[in-house]
What does this fold into?
Amino acid sequence: MLFNSIEFLLLFLPVVFLIYFGLHKINLHKMALLLLIISSLVFYSFWNPVYLFLIVGSMIFNFLIGTIMNGSKNLFSRNLLLFLGVLGNVLLLGYFKYYDFFVENANFLFETNIALQNLLLPLAISFFTFQQIAFIIDTYRGETKQYSFMTYALFVTFFPQLIAGPIVHHHEMIPQFNDKSKYHIQLSNIVKGIFIFSIGLFKKVGIADTFAVWANEGYANVETLTFVESWLTSLSYTLQLYFDFSGYCDMAIGLALLFNIKLPINFFSPYKSRNIQEFWKRWHMTLSRFLTHYLYFPLGGNRKGEYRTYLNIIIIFAVSGLWHGAGWTFVVWGTLHGVASIIVRVWGKTKIVLPFVISWFITFSFINLAWVYFRAESLGQAHTLFGKMFTLDQSILHVFNQKLAFASTWETFEFLGVHWLTNPMFVVPFLLLFLAVSLLAPNSIQLLEKFEPKVSTLLLVNVCIIAVLFVTYILHKNSEFLYFNF
It folds into this structure.
């Protein structure tokens, strides 16, 4: 079930909302929380009911480990429980997400013929596994309380953030679920929630899914791309991913606000960054937080000398790459970001400060090129696209004079007598417009902070929703979010 689907918007969400607050109204608070857990599990199992047993089993395992650890004062027992808890989560994630990847590489290196499992990646496994690893480690450190299983289960499964984050901490979520002041409908939160949700919905359906047409077509036809088409392909994916993930984050925040729950900010105008360290303070902020607190610091952080610090940086970025996907393209992408982060640190020692425009341009160019590895299905495909992007040809002289051949499968789409999706007179300005929006416009979090219910705001919400319905109807699109794959 997708946030942008009719069954979610017109059936699941309003029914859950009304029953949830209805139960609170008659003081059946535990029943209301139980309803939210069951609804979240229904939401999760909509894709594949089989994996319902996986997430429930994972919750029970981690809750028992945490409960036993909280009640134990014996250091050996606590160390053993910590080891078993982290190992259990890593093995679960490793088997479903990385088994085939490691087997393929083992078969290649040792000329073996171990059979692949061809496992279907369980939805959200990377997110709920990392959340529970953090819970186990925090319990070991004495930073958790003896939570009830109901509130713990809701912390893991809460549907607005279950599928693609943010990766939340128990201490920022469970107290909210136990806060009785949040058990009543709050009109201000409903209005704010609808406002930011509608922005996110428009980002996803109206913007990201449009860029997806050119990105997907380009990567599917990488061998035949011209110089211009190769750059349109890479930049289209760069903007598709931006508005897709940004849209999801907005929608998650908006949905949570409907239930009076505040989620942590996970996305804050990352393409405005002037170096790669700043980028990671703005992009998938809760993943950066997790890797910093639960991997970088335990490895020693920057406390064990300069070269050990650089090694630790490479490790956490390589892990970040692997977390996103089981493939060498993701490892290369993560490692490139690690190297770039080290370069920024070394450059900082020179005390030379580049003008903002230059530092921004270098950073954005690096991010755009690195996304090629992130999106490519193989290293070979990525290198082919790079070759096209840095080989000048005649296409640069005829940018607006001929249709885009790489998007020819969309030539049948016509509106008002124009083949919009293959017409560079539309594609190029569309790309430049939303690149400018990502760089110059206030982001949705800033808009939410300044939000005031008034006529202009209502009009903005209506425009977003109408545009979503129009694009969905015209292009017949109802696509998943990109981070569902990670």
Remarks:
- The chain has two domains: 6-185, 190-485.
- Residues 111 and 455 are 68 Å apart (CA to CA).
- Residues 75-110 form the longest helix (36 residues).
